[in-house]
Design goal:
236 residues; Lysozyme; 10 helices; mainly alpha
Length: 236
Amino acid sequence: MSPPGRPKGENRSANHGCHLMNTVLSRIGRDRRRLGSALLLGPLAFAFPRTGHAGAQVEEPLANAVRSALASSVNDTAPPKPAFDNIEARLAYLRWLGEMSHRLQKRKAEHMSRVEFLETAWYESTRAGLEPSLLLGLIQVESGFRKYAISSAGARGFTQVMPFWARSIGNGDARHLFHMQTNLRFGCVILRHYLDLERGDLYLALGRYNGSRGRPEYPNAVFASQRLWAYQPPVT
């Protein structure tokens, strides 16, 4: 019943206003809590997306020579053990590994698995003639460093490789794309292939990798993420 002297419509309006105000205050509280959590995590809270861009490389006919070269590249089962010509190069690698391990700690808490991932990422990217920071930036955008990520297009793993690649240049079993070194190798070999097709134009190669050639969103996102993984050796 409405209070004496107040029309029923006005009472309903007041109740609605109170309910609306409570809803707004509740949302503000949630937003503040989320912002507080993000600030505690620092810039990396915004740097690592929970979901990456859906990888969607387009299946294209491959010349037999190209198919054979790609298959040979991905089927080499050599373990990711880098070799160095001198102690300075090895020390530079170890400093890079330590710094990247520190940056990746929030995403991969277990030390040994984190180091194994970074060793493999360095090995596979260098083997393909790519910057390690580029591979790490691509992985951040594609999967958020989730080993078992699957996109809406069906792409799999860290580098979001489409299953047709397993049929074209692998052993045909798309489940192997969840194996860490296999996935990183496929991603690097595919990006190197696209880079060669685009005559060294990384912008177009990244667009082709994502199935969005010519559009700026994906290449720009990878370039931005790459900058987060760039490493500048200390001045001695």
